[in-house]
Amino acid sequence: MRPLSAEQRKLLDRLLDRQGIGRGDARITRAADNGPELPLSFAQQRIWYLNRMLPQETMYNVAGAARLRGDLDVEVMRRCLVEIVRRHEVLRTTYHPAPGGKGGVQRVNGVPDLALPVVDLRDLRGPAQETAVGEYCARETSRPFDLENDLMLRPVLLRLADDEHLMILCQHHVATDGWSLNILIREVGALYGAFSAGEESPLEPLALQYGDFAAWQRDYLTPEKMDQELEYWKDRLHETRLVDAATGLPRPTVLTWDGGTLHYRMPAELVSGLTRLAEAERATPYMALVAAYSVVLARWSGQDDIIIGCPIAGRTRGEIAPLIGCFLNELPLRLNLKGDPTYRELLGQARDVCLGAYDHQDVPFEKIVEEVNPERDAMSHAPLVRHQLGLHNEPKYRIDLPGVSFEVATLSTNTARFDLEVDLTVEDDGDISGMVYYSTDLYREDVVQRMLDRLTTVVAGAIDNPDSTVWRLPLLGEAEHQTITTELAGTPAEAVPGTAPDTVHALVEAWADRTPDAVAVFDRGTPWTYRELDVRANRLAYWLRHLGVGVDKPVPVVLPPSALRLVAILAVLKAGGTAVPVNPAHRGADVRAVLADTTAKLVLTDGDTLLDPALKLAEADASIRMLALDTVGERIEDYPADRPEPVATPQDLAVLSYAKKISGTPAGLGSTHAGVAHRLTWMSERFPLRPGEGVLPRDRAALDASPWDLLWPLTAGATLVVADGVPATV
User: So what's the pLDDT on residue 279?
Assistant: First the structure.
């Protein structure tokens, strides 16, 4: 056997650490007698602080359900749970402010006479019983824990039939994690068999308790060691910013913790291909998934600096492997997609980033945040990390109860701790599957589903062509691509009712797909093809999303009729925003009144318009950012050429028009995508245009600069001719 290289040895060490097989340094021992109180671990401290601020929130409830079929002995099951609570002190520990009010402490309490309430639902049948089960599950998972008084394990047994039960197990994250759930299942299996036979517990006594780990962690991470480890994180996370992925909904001023869940599965054949690719690059499947997920987030946000949260098991030492408790830590993984790397190059980067993070995983996440001091966002649940990706590698235990089958499932608590959390496990059949938790304040379910579909498609594309640049990897699956191609194949006039594109920019994109090299705009002697117009608008749309433009966000476009004005309007729509066309030839006071009425924080214009003394745009609210598009061509080139993922729906506002002179309070008229698309389609049918036919817009002095006249030719494949436009350099 050939010896391992230094790099392979390092990778093996990290993998052993993640499996809980430590290397023996700084072993954990029983804590000295510190009286009735012990310090909190760093992970517990983060959760405890949040619970103190939001005691009624349930985002740290962890719930599961076990379906039991057969002749269940309820008293024996209760005794099993009592023994587990006796063995694991953390389950009967309560959490209190430390004397003096600085931080928190944990107190281990005596062994309780744990109750196992039984709710009899045998009188209900079919849908009525299913409804009742759903209500009980929701009630239990949404009931907050009192950390100063409650047990950290709350069981309820639903009796569905004489030989069928559903046991709901609800815990608080301060005392458990994913690894711990498998320990609990394994111990239930061992104890139920023994107690049913009248035997004593077959489980070995625990040498350590969670409180011993918490005390050890505080001693181990001395200020000197902490500072040394933090140097790595300060270097890695210098000048980071939050990933602002398009979510389909505007980001509210204050986020709730409300969440939804979806199930995700990646088929075994893809997992096998991804594993082979990862191994060829001396990486793991998780590293390959991190690379793929970063591609999806980059393409979704238009950003090339991506942060992904990695939940690490934290069981780097073998002596804590059998303990129930919260050992989890969060590692921020930063990937750089600048320079259009290939997927293979990005995978190598993900490998190095993960290995470096594993090597410095002892530093608590909250300490990283304190030192790095990233871009703060009061609208985020957690600083630095908005998107998390986990792939569980903890051992899975199968239990075989005498006369009873035992099937475990995760229960949703309808909460979300991140914008998007992907929680996956490798299954016995080779699939990768799991739950995806998303903030319902930010995401519609269909948007999350599309993101997950994109992840699968990116993985498939990377397997097929790992040397493709990441910005060119396919995002659409074959079936979805075929559907879109079919829908966009005909002109608006030929489209079957109900199947034509129902957003404004999609009408133009249809012609960019069908006749990409046809001239879309002839602007002061300069031809712009449909492809050029589409690509320029795509790049600008990504930047606008970066700047915060999203659904129902108005963006005034103060530009004269020109190709540049069309690029700006289309980019706003592609970004999900609402375009507010404003004619710069109108009175300056009216233009400024429109800007004030929209309460927009971003205005798209050009240098000449911005400096026009008649408009006095510089005198507008200082909080408004004036973006002169003819001066930022190179900056926009940094963004992808492909289309950003659509977020606007037909019911969202597309255009806000101020068609008349303003007297008194300004009033804009909003039009939805469906309404504008219908009007443009009607115009194409009522006044048919042939592809390539030139159209000169009417010279109108309306305050809204006649957006219909500019867009109409482009929805019919014709050419807009601008006689006196301005040079466009976007």
Answer: 96
CA 149 to CA 93: how far, in whole Å? 9
Quick one: residue 189, left, alpha or beta (phi over 0 = left, psi -120 to 50 = alpha)? alpha
Nearest to 324 by CA among 169, 196, 437: 169
Beta strands in 259-304 (DSSP E): 259-266
For tokens 């039009």, name the residue: 671
Residue 325, sorted as left (phi over 0), alpha (psi -120 to 50) or beta, turns out to be: left
For residue 293, give the DSSP letter.
H
Query: What is the C-alpha to C-alpha distance for residues 240 and 255, in angstroms, rounded to an integer?
Result: 22
What pLDDT score was predicted for residue 87? 96
Dist. CA 626–CA 251, nearest whole Å: 22
The H or E element containing residue 48 is helix 42-53
More confident residue, 617 or 42: 42
Nearest to 311 by CA among 511, 559, 62: 62
| DSSP one-letter string for 647-691 | ---TTSEEEEE--S---SS---EEEEHHHHHHHHHHHHHHS---T
Q: pLDDT by residue (tens digit) across 594-650?
A: 888 888 889 998 888 888 887 777 666 667 888 889 888 878 887 888 899 888 888
pLDDT for residue 21? 45
pTM of the model: 0.68
3-state secondary structure 219-248: HHCCHHHHHHHHHHHHHHCCCCCCCCCCCE
- pLDDT tier, 492 (very low <50, low <70, confident <90, very high otherwise): very low
Taking the C-alpha atoms of residue 635 and residue 651, their distance in angstroms, rounded to an integer, is 32
Q: What would the pLDDT profile of 673-730 be if each residue is shown by its tens digit? A: 887 887 787 777 777 787 778 777 655 444 455 566 788 889 888 888 886 533 333 3
Distance separating alpha carbons of residues 219 and 658, to the nearest angstrom: 66
662 token code pair: 């303003």
Alpha carbons within 13 angstroms on the beta-carbon side of residue 375 total: 11
Q: Name which of 538, 537, 599, 545 is nearest 567 in CA terms.
A: 537
Give CA–CA dist 211/175, Å, rounded: 11
Residue 537 in tokens = 């608008």
